[in-house]
Amino acid sequence: MTVQVERTFDLSAPPEEVWAFISDAGKRAGAISVVESYELHDEDGERATWHVSLPIPLVRGTVSVETEQLERDPPRYVRFVGRSKVMRVVGEHELEEIEDGTRLHNRFQVKGKLPGVETFFERNFQDELRNLERAIEDDLGVSMDEE
Fold first, then answer.
1. pLDDT tens-digit readout, 21-60
2. Buried b vs exposed e over 17-52: b needs ≥16 C-beta within 10 Å?
3. Any idea what the CATH number is for the domain that residue 6 is in?
4. Distance between CA 91 and CA 121 in Å, rounded?
5. Domain of 43, in residue numbers
6. How many domains does the chain have?
7. Which comes out higher in pLDDT, residue 125 or 142?
8. How many other β-carbons are positioned within 10 Å of the β-carbon of residue 128?
């Protein structure tokens, strides 16, 4: 089973400012509650390891998720993949310029390799995307409106 989640929200900031946050692997990692720590493997943040703590029965401790940007079109689009022994995550952030700022489209697809992974993400991904919204808002000092 694969879980797919989408969420779109508007920010009253130009795409270049939103891009500065969304393309920063460290800032993205810091916004996700299950990421306990991370390591960047290059200056651009195109490759990183996230150490994730998933509260599911078959996972003890943290899981290392190797992340890598697959496609990057600044300041419009980034697509990345995260691979680990328990899951594979593909994420996309697409920025669209609108009259009052930026519309950010977020899409994620999670394929679990252990029982409970998809259920966890199905239950919690909307909250994690709300965390991402708040982190962007705080970082940019702007407000957002959900679509």
1. 998 888 888 999 999 999 999 877 789 999 999 988 888 8
2. bbbbbbbebebbbbbbebbeebebeeeebbebbbbb
3. 3.30.530.20
4. 13
5. 2-146
6. 1
7. 125
8. 19
Model confidence at 84, in pLDDT bands (50, 70, 90)?
A: very high
**Residue 147 — very low, low, confident or very high, per pLDDT cuts 50/70/90?**
very low
Minimal CA–CA distance to 121: which of 95, 94, 77, 84?
84
The pLDDT of residue 143 is 61
For tokens 């300041």, the residue is 75
Question: Which residues on adjacent β-strands are paired with residue 71?
Answer: 79
101: which 2 tokens? 């700022």
Side-chain-side CA neighbours of residue 135 (13 Å)? 19
The pair of structure tokens assigned to 84 is 């680990």
